Amino acid sequence: MTSPSGPSRRQVLVAAAAAATTPLIAAAPAQAAGAARPRTWDLTLLGTSDTHGNVYNWDYYRDAEYDDSKQNDIGVAKLATLINQIRRERRGKATLVLDAGDTIQGTPLATYYAKQEPITATGEKHPMARAMNVIDYDAVTLGNHEFNYGLPLLDLWIRQLGFPALAANAVNAKTGKPAFLPYVIKKVSLGFAAPTLRVGILGLTNPGVAIWDKGNVEGKLRFDDMIATAAKWVPIMRARGADLVLISAHGGDSGTSSYGPELPNENPVALIAQQVPGIDAILFGHAHNEVVERFVTNERTGTQVLLSEPSKWGQRLTRMDFTLTRERGRWTITKKAATMLNTNTVVEDPKVLAAVRAQHQKTVAYVNQVVATSTVELSAAESRYKDTPILDFINHVQTEVVGAALAGTAYADLPVLSIAAPFSRTAVFPAGDVKIRDVAGLYVYDNTLEAVVLSGAEVRAYLEYSAKYFRTFAPGAPVDPEQISDPAVPDYNYDVFSGLDYDIDISKPVGQRITRLVLSGTDTPVADNAQFVVAVNNYRRSGGGNFPGIVKTQVYNAQQEIRQLLIDWAQAKGTIDPADFFQPNWRLVREGVPVF
């Protein structure tokens, strides 16, 4: 990250080095030159994305090796083994390694070095910098989650990397100049006295940062349209000698956005390939999907642009292979294809493990600290479709904090409501000792607590929007809890309120489902003009999920992390007892008959 005035001297030097003095990568001809056909060479691109702070194949919330129903493994250490294997197999040939972003957020390991012992305070090297430097990437694109912890931490992390960090569409809000390095051009050697291949790599981050991390970037950075930015920079890269153009983009390929139309498209990768000429391939991320190989035809040139997305958390490694020829002084790609490698086929790289071991062990010790004793087991397994004590625990703490903060203010007499979402289906507070990792497993995001004032009409509109999470079931039809939700709506975009009583009728159309909305413990309907203080996380309040009415001036914003507030409450109480906070106040119905 540069200062608001534009790229730093260091970044200018990095750009110059990348474009002019990058050490040559040796490559051997794929086949001998012959009279009948031109000589060919090959290039391999290895791509990662959305590693989200995963280095070890470890589940910090379970304090055990990571596992899931599909036997996936995770972590940069696993990726390193695959990358090293391919580099050894291709020794003497050209291999590039890129990452498409969302790197420094997502695990207790990453959180620890952003919050508990922030690298900005200690000067310690970030674990993701340590791990990625061992691999020796050629470039990384900034994802939206890179901005979660503020620009100073991001700036330091970038300076700790041994390779460039790219984000062409993140620009200085005052000058309009690039705030980060837009692209690099890598010189790839094709053998002694042979022509050099110049590979241009353009990085594009997600415009949603302007909403999701508004508090960190407002007035400092602007996030331009990814398609327009590619259209601007690709011709510049070609003019400056790029023979082959790769894009590393932190945006999906669906063409849709999770927010409204006020920001550029969140997932425009296929549109970039279709509309912007001069692109050979795109490595992308953000959507956490596994897209092995997708070709999109450019509407102006007819070129087939190769796209690939390597899932999430280090579960997969994209491999793109290009065959090239050179005729009349120009390089031509004669073949390109992509495959996907699974990290559960290899062991972890010992050098990556060693580089991060001390930080990993410190994090494990931290998350295993006991914070309280729970009187019973509390599970989030049913929180999506039933009012559960564990979700009420979040709402209770949020309500208590906001209520105390507003005492003695103009808002002190307004009822305080609270909003929470079922982030995890597997979170559990065991009966007995509850540890930091149990709380972190319930509240997996680094959100902070805010509050706004909503009217009764706005609360109803918000609940109607949230209720689109559920599929429609006719009265009497069987309801499978595992199939109850619309797959297009993620769990984190289903919110429940505390402080009011309401019914959601899933037999009715979306927009007509809140059939009962009354003041808590009464039969008094909530008036449209009633006023409520609503405790909400910063992601939602800033527009994440595009919920109606919530993007407005805060009446409370102390920049307190919700997960830490939950930990602090549990530590202060010493006991987690549902009798202290569980208030059943909502249910799913059909024609007034409870579903469960």
TrEMBL record:
Keyword Membrane (UniProt): no
CDD domains: MPP_CpdB_N
GO biological process, one term: nucleotide catabolic process
Record's keyword annotation contains RNA-binding: no
Domain named 5'-Nucleotidase C-terminal: residues: 370-548
Needed cofactors: a divalent metal cation
Domain Calcineurin-like phosphoesterase: 44-289
Alphabetic keyword roster: Hydrolase, Metal-binding, Multifunctional enzyme, Nucleotide-binding, Signal
InterPro entries assigned to the protein according to its UniProt record, in alphabetical order: 5'-Nucleotdase_C, 5'-Nucleotdase_C_sf, 5'-Nucleotdase_CS, 5_nucleotidase/apyrase, Calcineurin-like_PHP, CpdB_N, Metallo-depent_PP-like, TAT_signal
Reaction equations catalysed: a ribonucleoside 3'-phosphate + H2O = a ribonucleoside + phosphate; a nucleoside 2',3'-cyclic phosphate + H2O = a nucleoside 3'-phosphate + H(+)
Compartments where located: Cell envelope
Main location: other
Taxonomic superkingdom: Bacteria
GO cellular component term, pick one: outer membrane-bounded periplasmic space
Range of residues in the leader sequence: 1-32
SUPFAM superfamilies assigned: 5'-nucleotidase (syn. UDP-sugar hydrolase), C-terminal domain (SSF55816), Metallo-dependent phosphatases (SSF56300)
GO MF term list: 2',3'-cyclic-nucleotide 2'-phosphodiesterase activity; 3'-nucleotidase activity; metal ion binding; nucleotide binding
Similarity field: Belongs to the 5'-nucleotidase family.
Protein name: Bifunctional metallophosphatase/5'-nucleotidase
The organism of origin for this protein: Micromonospora arida
